[in-house]
From TrEMBL:
PANTHER family: SLL0198 PROTEIN-RELATED, SLL0888 PROTEIN. Residues 11-182 form the Putative restriction endonuclease domain. GO terms for molecular function: endonuclease activity. Pfam families: Uma2. It comes from the Bacteria. This is Uma2 family endonuclease. Keywords: Endonuclease, Hydrolase, Nuclease. The keyword Kinase does not apply. InterPro entries: Nuclease_put_TT1808, Restrct_endonuc-II-like, Uma2. It comes from Scytonema millei VB511283. CDD domains: DUF820-like. The keyword Nuclease applies.
Amino acid sequence: MTTTARQFTLAEYLTYSDGTDKRYELVNGELVEMPSESDLNNAIAIFLLLAFAQLIPGRLLRRGTEIVVSGFRATSRVPDLMVLTEDLAAALAGTARSIIMPDMPPPALVVEVVSPGKENEDRDYRYKRSEYAARGITEYWIVDPQGDRVVVLTLVDGLYEEAIYQGDERLVSQTFSLLELSAKQILQAGEA
């Protein structure tokens, strides 16, 4: 993952273009190039999107939408999947860019699929965990194919409480109680 030495403000990031189709996250003021996702990561995100689409309207589901979070400096993340609230969907309607700004409500759920490597693991388990909690996101799921587990984090009094699911264990979501998926189904993108 390459980063820039230059510090960007959020306003500069929102207008930045390097003339390529590279994707970036803004992390503490630095542009961090996001590598292409693995096929498994994409398959997991799409499997979850389709599972949620059976329970909620498709207009509340997002892939590729950015979210501005708290950080040492300006930080914007691009989760693998988001489930919006009705209020957030209304706030995003008609915007020129699919980005959740600090003055908008938080999403109901954010899902990150962990890519291989310690740096990616640290980002999803440590940094994003604190950023998403500070942003007030009710649930944060960490789907970890390398660790063979799904971690469901539920926001309680500003901090996440953690539940870990493996194998045939059915995930329990306080926000989406009708969702009936096992960790194995998610980790194998529905092939289980």
